Amino acid sequence: MWEGYDDHGGSKPYLWIFFVLVLVVMSSIFFLKPSISSLPGTEAPGSKNVPLMSELIAPGIGDALYLQDGSPGFWSVSREEDEFAVSYLDADGITMWQHIARWSDPIIRSQGPYLIMAEFAGSQVAVFLNNVGLVFEREVSGIIRDVSIAETGEAIVALTRPLEDELTIRSYLVQFTSGGGDGWEVAVLGSEILRLEQAGDGSLIGVLALHLEGGSARTTLSAYSRYGARLFIKDFAKHPVDLAVRMDGGVIAIAVGKEIRGFDQQGQLIWTYEAGVDLKHLVYVGRSVNLVYAGQRKTLFTFGPHRIIGVLGEAGKLAWQYRTRDDIVTVTQSAMTTNVLICTDKRVHLYSHDGNVRWTMPHDWGAAATVATTDGRNYIVHAGPTAFLLRSQ
Predict the structure, then answer these.
(1) 304-316 per-position pLDDT tens digit
(2) What phi, psi does 29 have (nearest 5°)?
(3) If we measure between CA atoms, which residue out of 219, 218, 175, 171 comes closest to residue 198?
(4) Which is deepest, 30, 39, 53, 260, by most CB within 10 Å?
(5) Has residue 163 been placed in a domain?
(6) How many domains does the chain have?
(7) Of the segments 51-60, 74-83, 295-304, 374-383, which one has the largest average pLDDT value?
(8) Residue 38 placed within a domain
(9) What are the residues facing 196 on neighbouring strands?
(10) Neighbour tally for 319: CB within 10 Å
(11) Which domain holds residue 201?
(12) How far is 272 from 205, CA to CA, in rounded Å?
């Protein structure tokens, strides 16, 4: 049965190299094709579903920096060099008022009718109300690390204050009332505060921090009541990524390493989800129990990372997932809807809370776009100095 076998075939290794290359190319057809788990593909589901787009007069100055739901309208912050324009737009994208200020490196957060702006590593804080404009602006005693604001206007500022011993870090949470008056202050000893988040009504405050002690560091998650009383503190060995507080204050979710954990107000672990990706961001969808995470994964057979958006249900179970090789520019949600809009550098997709695609639209805005909605149907888009209104049909 071995007649005709050429035992000199091994002297032609280039044939084996050729066959290996053929196998790699053929396998790449499978491994390199775009993949979206249980969702429809990235092609538009039909022109009748694509939203109507009209151009708007862009608010502010220069390029858009921040765009978010400010029910019933939109918050917009744009930038040109060191000048920032804070604007409030109505539901049709028309500018109602504008405030110009000079900042170096601002932190911007908003919830509903309030927006807070603070200078990172500085001392200035400003709070705005949608139907008023600037409510108050003041200087704090310390170096600002992060800020948060509730829908009811209570502002929390995380800051550090220098001590004589430069190796000791002393951090604080400082509260201001909706009118800018002094509230409570809590010391967070030995921790560098990384992220701060409030429930919609300010009933629960989550703090993600790095605890430094004896030359070592560990991640801590702590929770406080609206009156500044600490409810619990948890330690983690894994590196911190982000945290999110559900609108009703029922759950604090934290991303550490490639894992997401959910805790109740007493600090009890209620669920854990192994994402298996390099996590980047967490956010709750409106007033629902759904949690959105963003991350990326590199594989052996791809030339670039997969960007992944996942949605977890109430018990931390994966409800649906979106995967793409496009750069994800923004993931948009609103307190008034459970829809999720995913904007990449090539397409915009609108999904329902259960992962059904409502519409998909290609675009040429690139990575400069910011998108926001108030009702989950109509969207404002700022792409560089240009603005659009998308109306769902």
Answers:
(1) 788 999 999 989 9
(2) -60, -35
(3) 175
(4) 260
(5) yes
(6) 1
(7) 74-83
(8) no
(9) 207
(10) 16
(11) 54-391
(12) 21
